[in-house]
Specification:
With 355 residues, this protein is an alpha/beta fold. The protein is built from 13 helices and 14 strands. A hairpin with a 2-residue loop joins strand 7 and strand 8. The two termini are 27 Å apart. Butanoic acid binds next to loops.
Length: 355
């Protein structure tokens, strides 16, 4: 039997799971408020904090590190690579540590997995990182040659939910056109054409709907003026896009459940902003349906925000269901997808790629 530790650092949470072969034994989500995360000036400086969350989980679980066959972390901003499972090696550690390709919480997934695995001499992996790139060339063109659109999104969950949806529809993923929407701390809306994500918003980089903690696409002239106003440092402007944008900037929280409570208590501003997020998500679903020439077999809504049934049904589904039937997968499937990749690799059924 293989015991697998799964580490999934998200933008607003740390999720940790333990699997025995393909069976989940434990799964815990530790949510991080915007104040808690906001005290760190960048992602690398969250390393010790995030590692401690995992160590505390392990202590509570009663399973020593030495009882695991492998550790798999969600990773990370690397150079564009194909999907699959990768062994964490020194090249990868160098790129993750230096944030060479940018900063995202999942960079810490690979780093922490490597460090913990090294201490007990077991394998560390990552799978389907956020840089998986299947974008068609025309979608890369932004409108100015100095800036190329990039594929950075919740590849792990989007792919896994797409497969689940295909199974539900009794079809092969490679025969379907799907729009998959992941709504977590960040939001990505992907056009899956016959098994490839041919277009998706860059969920990390001021592209797409606004999110619990990100601004998404902003009117450019306003943003440019703000950048040159002399009022803000680069680090502050970066945080407006990521970490302190979206719901955090309007309502002071990255927690959609807290926003629900504000609305229930009669807060009209909270209602307007939360509805505007749904409006923007729906617009992006509309955009992606044109990428698929309006030949869309199904739409899937997933990620933490998808637990909010009313939000999904009234504010998103009603707006987009004329495009295609809408299916809801609350939360997502990231820990299972990671564990299954590691399990297949340990059994020798999946090629382990080298970075
Ligand atoms: N039951 C719920 N109802 C509404 N919103 C919820 C619920 N549970 C979680 N959320 C919201 O989902 C968001 C977090 O989603 P998720 O856990 O998928 O994100 P993450 O893993 O931290 O970030 P990312 O997926 O972008 O890496 C938060 O705003 C959280 O408040
Ligand atoms: C870039 C995909 C992950 C996220 O938005 O947090």
């Amino acid at each position: 039997m293989f015991k697998i530790l799964v580490i999934n650092p998200g933008s607003t949470s740390s999720k940790i799971a333990i699997y025995d072969d393909d069976q989940e034994i434990l799964n815990e989500t530790v949510r991080h408020s915007s104040e808690e995360i906001g005290r760190f000036h960048d992602i690398p400086s969250q390393y010790e904090f995030r590692k401690k969350v995992i160590e505390e989980f392990l202590n509570k679980s009663g399973y020593p590190l030495s009882s695991f066959s492998a550790i798999i972390g969600r990773g990370g901003l690397l150079r564009p690579i194909s999907g699959g499972i990768y062994s964490v090696n020194e090249n990868m550690i160098k790129d993750l540590k230096s944030s060479k390709y940018g900063e995202h919480a999942s960079n810490l997934g690979g780093l922490i997995a490597y460090e913990l695995a090294k201490s007990v001499d077991i394998e560390a992996f990552i799978a389907d990182p956020v840089v998986v790139d299947e974008m068609m060339d025309i979608a890369r063109i932004s409108g100015h040659p100095d800036i190329e659109r990039k594929s950075i999104f919740h590849a792990l969950n989007q792919k896994s939910i797409a497969m689940q949806l295909a199974e539900k529809l009794n079809k092969d993923y490679k025969d379907l056109n799907l729009i998959i929407v992941h709504m977590g701390g960040g939001i990505s809306v992907g056009a899956h054409k016959k098994g490839r994500v041919v277009d998706v918003n860059n969920a990390l980089d001021g592209d797409g709907p606004f999110t619990p903690e990100r601004s998404g696409t902003l009117p450019l002239t306003g943003f440019m003026k703000l950048c040159y106003s002399g009022e803000y440092e680069l680090t502050e402007v970066k945080k407006m896009l990521k970490g302190k944008g979206g719901l955090v900037s309007y309502l002071g929280t990255n927690d959609a459940q807290e926003v629900q409570k504000m609305i229930e208590a009669g807060d009209k501003k909270a209602e307007t902003i939360y509805k505007a997020m749904a409006f923007k998500i729906s617009k992006w679903i509309g955009k992606m349906s044109t990428v698929l020439n309006f030949e869309v077999d199904a739409i899937a809504l997933t990620g933490g925000v998808a637990y909010d049934q009313i939000y999904m049904d009234k504010w998103i589904k009603e707006r987009v269901e004329f495009i295609a039937p809408v299916y809801i997968f609350p939360g997502g499937d990231e820990e299972r997808a990671l564990a299954m990749s590691a399990y297949r690799a340990l059994k020798g059924e999946q090629e382990i790629k080298s970075y």
